[in-house]
Amino acid sequence: MRELDLFMPLSGGTAIIEAAAGTGKTYSIAALFLRLVVEREIPVDGILVVTFTEAATEELRERIRERLCHGVEAFSGDRPSDEFLTELVRRTPDRRRALQMLTLALASFDGAAIHTIHGFCSRVLQEHSFECGALSDTELLTDQLPLLREIAEDAWRRHFYEADELFISFASRNGWTVDRLCKLLQQVSSRFSISLLPDAKPVDAALPRAGCLRAFAALKSEWRSARERVVGLLIASAPLLNQTSYKKANIQGWGDEVDCFLAGNDPLNFPEKLVKFTAASLAAATRKGMATPEDQFFGLCETFLELAMELADAYLANLLAIEVELAATARTELARRKESRNLRSYDDLLGTLYQALHGSSGE
């Protein structure tokens, strides 16, 4: 990285200038503007300056105009106001011609192309509406969030109103709300070129659901008669097990958690510690040379968790598919609704110009 040289070659190409606040960005822009007028003899309406806010635009306009005034004074024979102008005058062989260009620039400064980014796009779309294929007399939509929320609410009704109750509960526990869909729409609707990964498709969750519910019913039935036996067996077997994984003082509490879970009707809302009641977990925690505790319930619990995770994976795949579908159609659907109401957002100013530049009239 090199320090910015205000007398760098103006031979074209792209230069990225990185600067923090208060380091002279506006000064540098005004200086380069002056050089383009003096050295390249470019009229002010042929130099585009864009920034982000109206306030910054007004400051740039005022500072560039002020710089042109100082340039006229310097090339008229007055003492230059700073080192940059002194050097510019010294480097300029035809000072009379430079003075003419600066005077013309000041006289035509009302036509200077100094805009916010959105303001510039709006100007181009107005001046070249036919080539851009832009709508006429559209109303500028300052906030498109209400429209995005409409799309999110429609998607929610389409995917969740008639879905099975287990899927709805699963989605709710995983943070799925209309607000989440709306946030996704905000993220993707303003991006003009976006690839969605992965290309997720919905899966049929009917078989995993049926298997999970059968295993859930079997687990409920067995727990009614096995509860005291299973908890007592684990407490009695605690010395045979890894104490980090199976502390004796925790086992009764795990049983209480299983009580609450199996009293409900949602097989996917199982407690984290249910895995402690599986044959695989007990085998992994059994101390070397000791016998692993055995009970029919441990096998049923392991089978249930396998089927529950299979159903959870199917539901997650379907939630991802909903996101992908919504993201893929977001811009098209948003554009359709705005077109039907003759609305245009700030993002549309950028998007329409972007598409026009890459279209048949782009050149």
Topology:
Elements: H1 25-39, E1 48-51, H2 54-75, H3 83-91, H4 95-107, E2 113-116, H5 117-127, H6 129-132, E3 139-141, H7 145-160, H8 165-173, H9 178-189, H10 206-237, H11 248-263, H12 279-285, H13 296-340, E4 343-345, H14 346-357
Helix pairs in contact: 1-2, 1-4, 2-4, 5-14, 7-9, 7-13, 9-13, 10-11, 10-13
Concise structural overview:
The protein is mainly α and 363 residues long. The chain contains 14 helices and 4 strands.
Number of H/I helices:
14
- Stretches where pLDDT falls below 50 for ≥5 residues? none
Global mean pLDDT = 92
Q: Give the total of beta strands.
A: 4
Q: Numbering strands along the chain, what is their spatial order in the largest sheet?
A: 1-2
Note the run of SSEs as H and E: HEHHHEHHEHHHHHHHEH
Biggest beta sheet attributes: 2 strands, parallel
Strand content: under 5%
Q: Over all CA atoms, what is the radius of gyration?
A: 35 Å
Q: Whole-Å distance between the termini?
A: 34 Å
Estimate percent helicity: 55-70%
**Structure class:** mainly alpha
Coarse morphology? elongated
How would you portray this structure in words?
Helix 5 (about 115-125) crosses helix 14, helix 10 packs antiparallel against helix 11 and helix 10 crosses helix 13. The model has no long low-confidence stretch (mean pLDDT about 90). This protein has 14 helices and four strands. The protein is mainly alpha-helical. Helices cover about 60% and strands about 5% of the residues. It is elongated, with a radius of gyration of 35 Å. The strands form two sheets. The protein has a two-stranded parallel sheet. A two-stranded parallel sheet has the order 3-4. The chain has helices spanning about 25-40, 55-75, 85-90, 95-105, 115-125, 130, 145-160, 165-175, 180-190, 205-235, 250-265, 280-285, 295-340, 345-355, and strands spanning about 50, 115, 140, 345.
